[in-house]
Design a protein that fits this description.
This protein has 271 residues and is α/β, with parallel strands linked by helices. The protein has two domains: 5-25 and 84-270, no CATH class; 33-77, no CATH class. It has helices at 5-14, 59-65, 95-114, 169-176, 190-193, 218-241, 254-265, and strands at 15-17, 26-47, 69-79, 81-85, 119-123, 155-160, 181-188, 199-204, 211-216, 245-250, 268-270. The strands form four sheets. The protein has a five-stranded parallel beta sheet, with helices on both faces. A two-stranded antiparallel ribbon has the order 1-11. The chain has a two-stranded antiparallel sheet with strand order 2-3. The longest helix is centred in the last third of the chain and has 24 residues, at 218-241. It is elongated and about 85 Å long.
């Protein structure tokens, strides 16, 4: 399935990542960094040493104290962006969900590049991915960090449905650690959120192939939705509790996901 290039281009032109006021690490850009740079924003003073640029001397301070000190300015960077993509089969359980994930990843890369950042797309428990050629064929296992080291002081964005068979607290703490800004985008298909009470039917586990005869009545659907809500709440609590940003995203055309889910959550903001 291919990314909707036109939809991605429209979203990239209209929005940008909501990066907040954190300090980041990365290459030269326009966001506040951790160190000394050449921006107009004052950072700190240090004592003058021979060879320093005299244009940066604090002459007003010298007039008061007769001490030569250099004015330092804030470093400005374009933060690293690591997109951590869940490639389990459930991420493509319906064509609408698979398309939504492709478009969302394409937009995340586009927003990063427009803001001067270099984005990497990394598979959970795997390596780098070409965002235009993602295959969702992973097993239903507990999530694991990518094989490549994650860059510190940057932005990390987890794209997953969170439908993991085991607890993921340790995993989340590891991917949240050392990130300046963290997003968890939980993508779920409309049918996963609100299945129809359609009576007797056969359900097939997309990751194991196991078939199960069930009777979907109102009571069964309500019990399922209760379990799903608890699963989503656990993920949200873990992410927000460690300073991250969480958004539950209903699989839909990219413009709708931006307007109804990403923008209200603060994951993106208008240009």
């Amino acid at each position: 399935m291919a990314t909707d290039v036109a939809a991605v281009a429209e979203a990239v032109a209209r929005y940008r990542l909501g990066l907040g006021a954190q300090r980041f690490r990365g290459r030269a850009g326009d966001r506040r960094g951790h160190g000394v740079g050449s921006s107009q924003e004052f950072f700190d003073f240090r004592d003058y040493v021979p060879g320093d640029d005299l244009r940066h001397l604090d002459w007003r301070g010298y007039a008061r104290t007769e001490q030569l000190r250099i004015r330092l300015h804030q470093e400005e960077v374009a933060p690293h962006v690591d997109v951590l993509l869940d490639t389990s089969v459930s991420m493509a359980s319906t064509p609408a969900k698979e398309q939504a994930v492709h478009d969302l990843v394409g937009a995340l890369v586009g927003w990063s590049e427009r803001q001067g950042s270099r984005a990497r797309v990394l598979a959970l428990a795997g390596g780098p991915l070409d965002p235009s050629r993602v295959a969702f064929d992973g097993a239903a296992t507990a999530p694991a960090v990518p094989a490549l080291p994650l860059r510190t002081g940057g932005v990390r964005i987890l794209v997953t449905d969170g439908l993991w068979p085991d607890a993921a607290g340790t995993f989340l703490r590891r991917v949240l650690s050392s990130a300046a800004r963290f997003f968890a985008l939980q993508v779920l298909d409309p049918w996963e959120l609100e299945p129809d009470a359609a009576g007797a039917m056969t359900l097939v586990d997309c990751e194991t192939g196991i078939r199960r005869e069930v009777h979907l009545d109102a009571r069964t659907v309500a019990a399922y939705q209760g379990r799903l809500d608890r699963l989503c709440d656990t993920l949200r609590t873990e992410v927000v509790g460690h300073g991250g940003l969480y958004a539950r995203v209903t699989a839909a055309p990219l413009a709708a996901m931006c307007e109804h889910d990403l923008l209200p959550s603060g994951a993106i903001e208008p240009q």
